[in-house]
């Protein structure tokens, strides 16, 4: 039996629009099994918090702010109700709770007095989003918060607003009545999913890379030889294919190209699926797009070694972390060079051999940015093309990695724990690139 479901909150609506299994796990899953967000998502979350704080300061200075999740929910609820009864012009991080669930609202703006409201005023919901484009999930979320306000206080507000792109001068208003049918259908599906004893099961998609539950779902997909290990298969495709006897990715051999065409696949997608089937059989990488076979020809593989974490407060004047050693290879031998710095903080290292390469393969934006800085300080002329292998994997590789950090990727390839520090990191980058190259 699953755990008793937690109360419905705003993110459940975005969950079900992306992945039903994720939504179900957010109701019933053991939170201790969640994985930490990857570094890229953590950076985006911090950026979002900064944008929120900026808008609070520039647009809502002096507004009442309700304590966050570290405070008991009943205290948060009481403080929100008290602020509403006082008719505060704006309430930040207001917490509303009913038998349906709860929500923490970025901004509640007072509309005016409302004799039908139990607190004497009605409030409009506002949300702050990093996205410059309004998404369906945003509408569902504010519709949920608006319904909570109606259930809790009897107000009948139908308008909500958004700060898009995190800018206080880009306020976007929406009439929620235009989305009422879609919202009610989504809520119905969500509550039905909440009440199920078992989830619908995982499905491999790009969103898995940042999901809290990837540590549970990715091994399950591999164990089951799930059809979604092949590219371009949606959850609906897999449902139809299962009705045709396709229980595992190997079973797709029994489905003709004509049958795939009837399911809506075009020639490109069918070729991609067939190539993915071949690569899975050979334990190669499955790709979401086609690339030239010579992608990594004449490439060198590069990694940078930074100071230990305990010393990382020693940064350059512009806030960047200083690399202390560079490792590179274009074959079996690994070359390492210490990076020295003069009194002005300029790096000094011999990069002549790397300057002759057409492409340098690194892993992640930190290495890429740091290398570009030291290259410009030490070399003249045009810099070789810098290729971010992490970004390539994020965008184009269709594989159920538990994480995109290099140790996770390497373990998936070699099926064993290997070190990826110092010179061993550049060896791991080369192994990963060669694994992808075999799939091209």
Describe the overall structure.
With 440 residues, this protein is of the alpha/beta class. 40% of the residues lie in helices and 17% in strands. The strands form 3 sheets. The chain has a 6-stranded mixed sheet, sandwiched between helices. It is globular, with a radius of gyration of 26 Å. It starts with 10 loop residues before the first helix and ends with a helix. Mean pLDDT is 91; it is low at 309-318.
- CATH class of the largest domain, please? Alpha Beta
Helix/strand/pairing category: alpha/beta
The rough form would be described as globular
Give a quick account of the main beta sheet: strands, pairing sense, barrel closure. 6 strands, mixed
Largest sheet: spatial strand order: 1-2-3-4-5-6
Query: What is Rg?
Result: 26 Å
CATH topology of the largest domain: Lambda Exonuclease, Chain A
Query: Based on the structure given, which CATH architecture of the largest domain is correct?
Result: Alpha-Beta Complex
Would you identify the regions where 5 or more consecutive residues have pLDDT less than 50? 309-318
Number of domains: 3
Mean pLDDT: 91
Total strand segments: 13
Distance between the termini: 44 Å
Helix content: 25-40%
Helix/strand order: HHHEHEEEHEEHHHHHEEEEEHEHEHHH
Taken as a percent bin, the fraction of beta residues is: 15-25%
- Please work out how many helical segments DSSP would assign: 15
């Amino acid at each position: 039996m699953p755990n008793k479901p937690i109360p419905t909150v705003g993110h459940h609506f975005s969950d079900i629009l992306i992945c039903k299994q994720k939504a179900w796990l957010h109701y019933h899953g053991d939170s201790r099994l969640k994985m930490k967000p990857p570094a890229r998502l953590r950076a985006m979350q911090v950026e979002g918090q900064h944008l929120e704080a900026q808008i609070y300061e520039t647009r809502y200075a002096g507004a009442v702010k309700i304590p966050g999740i570290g405070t008991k929910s009943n205290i948060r609820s009481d403080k929100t109700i008290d602020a509403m009864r006082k008719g505060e012009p704006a309430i930040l991080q207001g917490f509303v709770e009913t038998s349906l669930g709860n929500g923490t609202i970025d901004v509640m703006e007072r509309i005016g007095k409302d004799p039908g409201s139990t607190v004497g005023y009605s409030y409009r919901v506002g949300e702050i989003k990093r996205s410059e484009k309004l998404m369906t999930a945003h509408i569902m979320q504010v519709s949920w918060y608006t319904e909570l306000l109606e259930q809790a206080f009897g107000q009948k507000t139908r308008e909500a607003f958004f700060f898009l792109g995190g800018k206080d001068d880009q306020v976007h208003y929406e009439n929620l009545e235009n989305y009422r049918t879609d919202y009610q259908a989504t809520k119905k599906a969500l509550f039905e999913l909440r009440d199920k004893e078992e989830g619908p099961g995982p499905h491999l998609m790009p969103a898995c890379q940042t999901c809290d539950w990837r540590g549970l779902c990715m091994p399950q997909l591999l164990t089951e030889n799930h059809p979604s290990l092949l590219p371009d298969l949606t959850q609906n495709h897999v449902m139809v294919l299962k009705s045709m006897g396709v229980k595992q990715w190997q079973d797709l051999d029994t489905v003709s190209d004509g049958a795939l065409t009837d399911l809506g696949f075009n020639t490109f997608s069918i070729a991609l699926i067939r190539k993915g089937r071949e690569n899975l059989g050979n334990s190669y990488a499955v790709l979401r797009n086609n690339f030239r076979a010579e992608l990594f020809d004449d490439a060198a593989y590069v990694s940078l070694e930074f100071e230990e974490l305990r010393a990382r407060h020693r940064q350059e004047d512009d806030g960047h972390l200083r690399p202390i050693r560079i490792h590179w290879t274009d074959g079996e031998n690994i070359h390492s060079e210490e990076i020295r710095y003069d009194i002005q903080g300029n790096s000094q290292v011999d990069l002549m051999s790397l300057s002759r390469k057409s492409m340098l393969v690194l892993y992640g934006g930190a290495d890429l940015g740091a290398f570009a800085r030291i290259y410009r300080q030490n070399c003249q002329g045009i810099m070789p093309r810098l290729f971010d292998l992490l970004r390539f994997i994020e965008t184009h590789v269709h594989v159920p990695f538990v994480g995109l950090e290099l140790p996770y990727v390497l373990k998936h390839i070699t099926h064993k724990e290997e070190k990826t520090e110092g010179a061993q990191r550049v060896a791991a980058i080369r192994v990963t690139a060669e694994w992808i190259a075999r799939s091209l």
